[in-house]
Specification:
The chain is 27% helix and 28% strand. 28% of the residues are buried. It is of the alpha+beta class and 190 residues long. The longest helix is centred in the last third of the chain and has 17 residues. The strands form 2 sheets. It has a 7-stranded antiparallel beta sheet, with no helix packed on it. The chain has a two-stranded parallel sheet with strand order 1-2. The mean pLDDT is 93.
Amino acid sequence: MITNKLTKKIEQTTDNELALTTEEKDFAEKNQLLPEGLNIVGQNLFSEAIIERYNKETDELISKESIAFLQSPISYFKENIQEYTYLETPIFDVVSVDAIAVEYDEVFEVYTAMFGLFIQKKYTAEIRAFLDEHYNSEKMQYSMMFAANEGLWEINLPINYLNGFNDSSSIEELYQFLYSLIFKLVAIIK
């Protein structure tokens, strides 16, 4: 899946330079997808991002944010429990995700990420095995449900119980952490 998307991205480059995220570059090198002589430059995950804050109860837009908002600590969500943040970037296409929403769930007292993963239902076992490996399910369960009419998995992850989560991160570091996790997940699906 990632192999096809990265191959297409590499083939569409019109000059001798290609911007890739660290995860994309490592994957392309490991799988020998890069043609000789192609100059790889780092791509910022958030340079083309749409960042919006919404009211949880009404889904009304509160504010469109600049990339500077991502420097806020993740405790922002805990301090503004009536909000969630929606982040969309074209880079998410490589991992078959349109956007990721993050909020603080005051009932369970956890940070939560919600996203749709456009992967076929036949990969249920692979997705579950990956999440189980990277998740502490003894503390709390994640949820995933296949929406057949949309052809995607609706995934709700209490982030606090993901291996490697750091609650002193910035919002940018949190989204980078989630992107890396989803990249690893999608990379196992051939």
